[in-house]
Specification:
Number of domains: 2
Helix content: 40-55%
Order of helices and strands: EEHEEHHHHHHHH
Strand order of the largest sheet: 1-2-4-3
Number of strands: 4
Number of helices: 9
Shape: elongated
Length: 249
């Protein structure tokens, strides 16, 4: 922690007539993978009363917070945890969200962060899956393949594979935009929760099959597919984020 004398300037840049003692606190933050993650942590820290500014970097995961000397370190750690991220050795999402460290399903901030993670996963997965199913509908011949044959099952699995591929590609692009090099971005993207993505893909394709009766896709089936695809992994993403402090988007 560093201390220094600074003139009294509030967060809106308006000077007052007093002088205050500014303090700088540095926190190691884990769970961030992209620029949006850093923005989320920045907003959470700057929403704390007494904080003048926060500078957050993804690689390395670090936050530098300047406040007026009235903010306890534990409050800043709680703000990071409330945003869905972790300060190693000091607090976890579960520690701060539930008395005694007990898991619960009632933390609104965690649901919100899990929803954001799920949203980006849904966008990436939908690109590949919808494109593949749309081709099936346009070409027609995939819809004529006899049910239960090996080629049928290949065609049934292909939209899932393509959806996973486009999700990883999108995540890699987002990470690189957050100043991460390609190699680390790709490695981080592959480290995302495939359980969440696979559950989402299966749920969307099953919805399509139940509503249309085949592997094709028409425009009216897209909204229910997206809704089911979002809702299916959302509780799992909440559990993963709250239990382990892991946010992938």
């Amino acid at each position: 922690m560093q201390r220094g004398i600074a003139t009294g300037i509030d967060r809106r840049g308006v000077a007052d007539s007093t002088t205050t003692t500014a303090e700088v606190v540095r926190l190691d933050v884990t769970g961030m993978t992209c620029g949006h993650c850093a923005e989320t942590v920045t907003n959470a820290l700057e929403s704390v009363d007494g904080v003048a500014s926060a500078e957050v970097s993804v690689d390395p995961g670090r936050a530098e917070v300047t406040h007026d000397g009235s903010v306890a370190r534990a409050v800043l750690v709680a703000a990071v945890a409330g945003a869905g991220y972790t300060v190693p050795g000091e607090a976890t999402v579960a520690d701060l969200a539930a008395p005694g460290g007990e898991f619960n399903w009632t933390e609104g901030v965690v649901w919100k962060q899990a929803a954001n993670n799920t949203k980006w996963c849904l966008i990436g997965c939908a690109i590949g899956e919808f494109a593949t199913l749309g081709y099936y509908q346009w070409a027609q011949w995939p819809l004529q393949v006899p049910f239960g044959t090996p080629f049928f099952w290949f065609l049934a699995i292909l939209p899932l594979i393509n959806g996973l591929a486009t999700s990883v590609m999108l995540e890699t692009i987002l990470l690189m935009r957050g100043q991460m090099d390609f190699r680390n971005a790709l490695r981080t993207a592959f480290g995302m929760s495939f359980i969440s993505m696979l559950g989402m893909e299966i749920a969307m394709e099953a919805t399509d099959w139940l509503l249309t009766g085949d592997m094709g896709m028409t425009w009216w089936v897209i909204p229910p597919m997206l809704i089911v695809g979002f809702l299916t992994p959302w509780p799992y993403n909440y559990w993963r984020l709250k239990k382990f402090g892991q946010a992938c988007h």
